[in-house]
Design a protein that fits this description.
By secondary structure, the protein is an all-alpha fold. It contains four helices and no strands. Helix 1 packs antiparallel against helix 2, helix 1 packs parallel to helix 3 and helix 2 packs antiparallel against helix 3.
């Protein structure tokens, strides 16, 4: 995954890895989703942007940051 080219596959891998860390290491999940978001925006991968924003929203929700979670969920739309 770390050796992936900077394309949609890398974004998808980062987002999948983020989901795997939601419950065990939310800080890592958040960091992975932020990286996926930045790369998605850089390569103009709209689906990647939406999934990354959703993942960040879920991490915030699971940590009890409901207002912040809702902000990210609304950005996903």
């Amino acid at each position: 995954m770390l050796s992936d080219k900077e394309d949609s596959n890398k974004v998808n891998h980062l987002n999948q890895l983020s989901v795997a860390y939601w419950y065990t290491s939310p800080d890592t999940a958040f960091h992975l989703s932020e990286n996926a978001l930045a790369l998605s925006e850089k390569i103009k991968f709209e689906k990647g942007v939406a999934v990354s924003l959703n993942n960040i929203g879920v991490v915030n929700y699971l940590q009890g940051n409901f207002k912040e979670a809702m902000n990210y969920f609304l950005k996903t739309i």
